[in-house]
Amino acid sequence: MSVLYTGIGELVTNDPAQGDGSALGVVTDAALAVEGDTISWVGERGSAPAADTSVDCEGSSVIPGFVDSHAHLVFAGERSAEFAARMSGTPYGAGGIATTVAATREADDATLAHGAARLAREMLRGGITTFECKSGYGLSVEHEVRSLAVASALTPETTFLGAHVVPPEFRDRRDEYVELVAGPMLRACAPLARWVDVFCDRGAFDVDEARTVLEAGMAAGLTPRLHAGQLGPGPGIRLAVELGAASVDHCTYTTDNDVEALAAGDTVATLLPGVEFSTRSPWPDARRLLDAGVTVALATDCNPGSSFTSSMAFCIALAVRDMGLTPAEALWAATAGGAAALRRPDVGVLAPGRRADFALLDAPSYLHLAYRPGVPLVREVVTPV
Ligand code: NIG
Ligand code: FE
């Protein structure tokens, strides 16, 4: 069945061949036709094709569904007291992760599944139609497997993060933990995961440990992505580029060498402004990355410790206000950028042949995403079920 969405005040396609010819390919007074789950036509309303049925968007703007390439939805408990302490000056460290690991191990399967599904619904209401979901709060074979089973029920973009931190029972045996992650844990988790990730930072895993886990993951058929440069500068960003990781995430701290490596490689730099907001960390030098030609994505990093938001619109507002992205760059990073970070050519762009996957905003322009922070502008989401 064909559906024509008409009366679109401003249509963001992310296809430079459309409309104003910018990276966002903005078409004004637009229409968009869908056949089944696929876009069949986009353009100005006046030249729209006939369809079986039509939907009047009443001047709403339409944007591609947000693509959230970094989220930790499988956990139990919450850490609001830790957040409150940070707002009074206590610094963020990787140590808080152990609190969530303990709560997650204690929770039953239904609690974990309901918690993750609730956050996924929250994301969808806010316009996120594609999202990645990591394990990493189980940190044993049994609990990492069940975390990935929960994630797999929600998204195909599942990530094995057994190397999130060294769990307390391995504190004095970290080599043994790395062997466990790169061996039996990986073997048990690989069938449930598309990606392998490591938190390569102070208080987590060093670059040699990260390499061991990522290379083992690659040998098991997973594609690497990496947490690096969150708590301080280090060699993680260059390791990600060297291994051809799809994305390196956080990049709060970047050196000249990191920016050069990213510009020369294919790895997306995924920025997580919810983390800088919630941990009072310095803002990443996003302008420098963009000006060097690095592909930048924005993601929520939804997790109970460093960034408990499921709102991509909030992340866009922060990126514009505090990281120096233009509203157009921020929207691109939250849609096409996320799609690049997940290597998903089917989403992030509204063009014939792509997935019918978009959000209607109660606003005349996408500019309102940053201009009206905190306002739930998404009035409807269209995505294949
Ligand atoms: O991406 N940085 C490491 N992992 C998460 C935070 C985890 C937590 O504090 O619970 C992140 O920010
Ligand atoms: Fe993370």
From TrEMBL:
SUPFAM superfamilies: Composite domain of metallo-dependent hydrolases, Metallo-dependent hydrolases. GO terms for biological process: L-histidine catabolic process to glutamate and formamide. Fe(3+) binds at H70, H72, H227, D301. The keyword Zinc applies. Binds 1 zinc or iron ion per subunit. Its main location: cytoplasm. Transmembrane segments: none annotated. This is Imidazolonepropionase. NCBIfam families: hutI (TIGR01224). It comes from Prauserella cavernicola. Its cofactor is Zn(2+); Fe(3+). HAMAP family: HutI (MF_00372). Residues 62-363 form the Amidohydrolase-related domain. Belongs to the metallo-dependent hydrolases superfamily. HutI family. Keywords: Cytoplasm, Histidine metabolism, Hydrolase, Iron, Metal-binding, Zinc. The gene is hutI. Zn(2+) binds at H70, H72, H227, D301. It catalyses: 4-imidazolone-5-propanoate + H2O = N-formimidoyl-L-glutamate. It is an enzyme of class 3 (hydrolase). N-formimidoyl-L-glutamate binds at Y137, N303, G305. Catalyzes the hydrolytic cleavage of the carbon-nitrogen bond in imidazolone-5-propanoate to yield N-formimidoyl-L-glutamate. It is the third step in the universal histidine degradation pathway. It comes from the Bacteria. It is found in: Cytoplasm.
